[in-house]
Amino acid sequence: MNKEEIKKIVVDYINKNESASYAELQWLFEEKGYDYKGELLSCSDVCKHVVFWSGWNAEAFDLMTELLHEGVVHREPAHPLRYLLDGAALTLPKVRRAVQYKTDHWAPVVFVKGPDPELVTSQVKTKERITE
User: Fold this and answer.
1) pLDDT digit string, tens, across residues 22-58
2) pTM
3) Which of 23, 43, 90, 110: disulfide with 106, CB 3.0–4.6 Å?
């Protein structure tokens, strides 16, 4: 299965279910026979010690990054219980507030369909400034 095929499967799954956790996506990858396993972490651009998920390979993380950059999906915070119900969670301490952590902390998130609402709002504001 190539990357474009699995991207379509992921998008269809998120669109059908409104959102998906990394744990759900792992289940989906396994169901479809997609090799996602690796040793990499997905971390925040704001703080390298805020970890979204671990245990995937570069291609799996890249396909999700592409979907984020294309505006097809965006991340939203999730309650850790969502991950426990989905059957997987990280064993790191949970992110509690917006600080620059010095050790790794887990920020549970889900992927939601559509572009990030904050990004869309900021683009509208930028266009308004340009036309003024």
Assistant:
1) 999 999 999 999 999 999 999 999 999 999 999 999 9
2) 0.85
3) 90
